[in-house]
Amino acid sequence: xxxxxxxxxxxxxxxxxxxxxxxxxxxxxxxxxxxxxxxxxxxxxxxxxxxxxxxxxxxxxxxxxxxxxxxxxxxxxxxxxxxxxxxxxxxxxxxxxxxxxxxxxxxxxxxxxxxxxxxxxxxxxxxxxxxxxxxxxxxxxxxxxxxxxxxxxxxxxxxxxxxxxxxxxxxxxxxxxxxxxxxxxxxxxxxxxxxxxxxxxxxxxxxxxxxxxxxxxxxxxxxxxxxxxxxxxxxxxxxxxxxxxxxxxxxxxxxxxxxxxxxxxxxxxxxxxxxxxxxxxxxxxxxxxxxxxxxxxxxxxxxxxxxxxxxxxxxxxxxxxxxxxxxxxxxxxxxxxxxxx
Length: 341
What we know:
The chain is an alpha+beta fold. Helix content is about 15%, strand content about 30%. The protein has seven helices and 19 strands. Strand 1 (about 50-55) and strand 2 form a beta hairpin. The radius of gyration is 20 Å and the shape is globular.
């Protein structure tokens, strides 16, 4: 069994493999079996992504790791023993010694699953907070003729809005202006309170793709100008497909974001267009309240959303919404009409 990868690197010895945190993009070929165990080599640039999955939708959630791209085989972490986490949130709360055990499981890769044969849950579930940064791309400010914010400003989504990378998005019956916003999501890795900007990235675990689905009529004209309902209707936060560790990315400030509706591109931007960088955002928030492991921060969207097009465009039942970020992955969510059944 061979993990699918992008480049070939020199093999590391098994002792080294079991001691490292296994970063991420690139290669993975099996080393000869030793003591009945199979080890996989990993280059310094191998992309490591955490996924939550099951044999089928509604099945028991399991935690796994992919080394390479999104089509790489999944190494099942949950197969170790009863004390091994089945969710990423539980993994983030493990002690350092227990994480070493998990890393050893990944290196041995004894239980491997083909990603084509599983259902992908959101890569993080039940976070304490989902925080969103508004007007954080210069292009998005420009398309509204708004000045760049001097300091970041925020709104939130209920954690219950989170759905998986291929789940359906429900078009609410009380909105006629459903819009899209592809975003890079930050996943907090450890408790952060009053951290300095220079230390802020130490508290980031990794990144995933997000869609900040928005009911623009509720955002602009209802609920007395408050955004919570507009941003927090059911299924309004697709996430996934996996969380790529921060060490795996070549440059988080040079990622390309794309969004397409029914195959037609609507958004195309880069994270180098941020108004406020990730370390600024994390440090700012940590001085307001405690950030907890698993907290999700949506970092804003580039230009091209439907409400600022001429004429305006909005999502309709039957549309297929694709959201993609380079080096991280792609969401594909079908818009469906609301039903009580």
